[in-house]
Known about the structure:
Layout (H helix, E strand, L loop, with lengths): L3 E5 L6 E5 L5 E4 L7 H14 L6 H13 L1
Antiparallel strand pairs: 1-2, 2-3
Amino acid sequence: xxxxxxxxxxxxxxxxxxxxxxxxxxxxxxxxxxxxxxxxxxxxxxxxxxxxxxxxxxxxxxxxxxxxx
Length: 69
């Protein structure tokens, strides 16, 4: 299951997040007048629109974890 992990939440700097499913990085740069909520909504929109291409090493680790638990 994939989720969005926020990695940078400082005011005045780009908001960034990482997809936990495939490792894709999303960056939203602040525009004049943008609120933190507007930037977060844009980041979530970009995340929702992407489709994961799972990293082979992540898939292998998941398989090993399932087999050993």
